[in-house]
């Protein structure tokens, strides 16, 4: 498992992660989502909805991993979209992605 998925698991254990399309969109709208992960194998309609919402609310979006990988990292079944609600974790993810 790579560092991004490991950090996602750590953020989950710290209760700083929300998963599921509707819950993530709710977090984006409320301003609590600091970063959103979208699975690379997401359906087109889910991809468009999440991408549009993140861009209109200025929330960084990272396309990363498959739905199985994202789900496994947070200890759940398949997850297409995951939001990180902590600014510190979001900065850590941004550093990992940029390197």
Kindly list the characteristics that best describe this protein.
99 residues, alpha+beta, 60s Ribosomal Protein L30, Chain: A, 4-stranded mixed β-sheet, 5 helices, 4 strands, 54% helix, 14% strand
Radius of gyration: 12 Å
Strand content: 5-15%
* Molecular shape: globular
Mean pLDDT: 95
The CATH C-level name is Alpha Beta
Overall helicity: 40-55%
Main pleated sheet: 4 strands, mixed
What is the second-level CATH architecture?
2-Layer Sandwich
Number of domains: 1
Give the gist of this structure.
This protein is of the alpha+beta class and 99 residues long. It has helices spanning 3-13, 21-30, 44-56, 67-73, 87-98, and strands spanning 17-19, 35-38, 61-63, 81-84. This is YlxQ family RNA-binding protein.
Q: In words, what does this structure look like?
A:
The chain is an alpha+beta fold. It has a single domain, classed as 60s Ribosomal Protein L30, Chain: A, CATH 3.30.1330.30. It has helices at about 5-15, 20-30, 45-55, 65-75, 85-99; strands spanning about 15-20, 35-40, 60-65, 80-85. It has a four-stranded mixed beta sheet with strand order 1-4-2-3, sandwiched between helices. The chain is globular. The two termini are about 15 Å apart. The mean pLDDT is about 95.
